[in-house]
Amino acid sequence: MVEVRVSAKGKELALLVQEKEFNQLGLDQDAAYEIVKARKGVWVLLEKEKERENPLDMKIFGLLKGKDLKDRVEGKFERFLGKEELPRFKEMLMEGSIVAFRLSPKYKRAVYKTREEIEKNVKLGKRGKEQGIPAKKESESASAKEKRPDKYSLETDGFLVFKNRENAKILSAKFRNEIEGGKIRGIKSFDGFFYVVESPLYQKYRERALAMIKAEKGIGHAKIAEKIGISRTLARIVCELLKDDGEIIEKRKDQFQAI
Fold first, then answer.
1. pLDDT tens digits, residue range 201-248?
2. Which of 51, 56, 55, 53 is nearest to 88 (CA)?
3. What is the number of other CB atoms lying within 10 angstroms of the CB of residue 67?
4. 20 or 92, which is more confident?
5. What's the pLDDT at 121?
6. What angle do CA 94, 96, 100 make, to 5 degrees?
7. Does the residue 249 lie in any domain?
8. Cβ-contact 162, 194 below 8 angstroms
9. Do 35 and 106 share a domain, yes or no?
10. Given Cys at both, which of 89, 105, 135, 231 links 144, Cβ 3.0 to 4.6 Å?
11. Which residues pair with residue 258 across a beta bridge?
12. How many domains does the chain have?
């Protein structure tokens, strides 16, 4: 018997299952399930049938998986795509089914990987050692509530927000090794806030945000957050770092445009 608890978060309710029991049941984190009431006091959990793969998507996935890493490099892999495949490939980047992944900011070009490849070693509540991708944070949800700056933490959100310059100096000293090693990035925005974010979290959403900004002439961080499915604060941080990387400009307040 598996114990399932109901948890309330805002207006949403969630069924909670222990990770060990979840794995014992053979449930799939990427699958969608339906709950059907069989009779009073008895419910049945049904896995929803997955949508059929788009043939064009399958072709792109197959091409990507068949290439060596050196051929998956950003700017190079696109040469292997045909006229029909290239526009769909760009959409897949925006959707997140394919990710332009950088293990470290020191690499100038990203390597294209499927979301499956990146997350295959990531377990619920743990970090993927090989990929360096953090477990899902509270901020990785479009429904995440905005907090007071002092309520954000690296552990729960993947970033810190503060306005005090002294705090910036203290944290710079505290995370010196991580910053020098590229594990953490920090930046000060024009609104006076300092942001410190885990580099893998930024890399996780960097290319999707950039693809949206390239597709639309003038887009704000709130719309990016809504489309990607992350908190507005995280979207703002991603945009600030994209500006710092020289990828975009803020033409007017909260209106970003690719360079």
1. 999 899 899 999 988 878 999 999 998 899 999 999 999 999 999 999
2. 56
3. 15
4. 92
5. 41
6. 85
7. yes
8. yes
9. no
10. 231
11. 248
12. 3
- Looking at the structure, tell me whether residues 184 and 225 fall in a common domain: yes
Asked whether residue 153 falls in the same domain as residue 236, the answer is yes
Statement to judge: residues 92 and 11 lie in one domain: no
Last residue of a domain, one of 81, 104, 119: 119
Q: Report if pTM > 0.85.
A: no
pLDDT at 179: 81
Q: How far apart are CA 36 and CA 159, in angstroms?
A: 39
Q: State the residue range of the domain holding 155.
A: 149-258
Mean pLDDT of 82-89: 92
Spatial separation of the C-alpha atoms in residues 222 and 232, rounded to whole Å: 5
Looking at residue 50, what is its pLDDT? 55
- The CA radius of gyration of the chain, in Å to the nearest whole number, is 20
Same domain, 254 and 157: yes
Q: Where are the alpha helices (DSSP H) in 25-154?
A: 55-66, 85-95, 115-119
Q: Position 171: which residue type? A: L
> Within this chain, do residues 249 and 159 fall inside the same structural domain, yes or no?
yes
Task: Look at residue 87 and give its three-state secondary structure.
Answer: helix
Q: What separation, in Å, do the N-terminal and C-terminal C-alpha atoms of the chain show?
A: 57
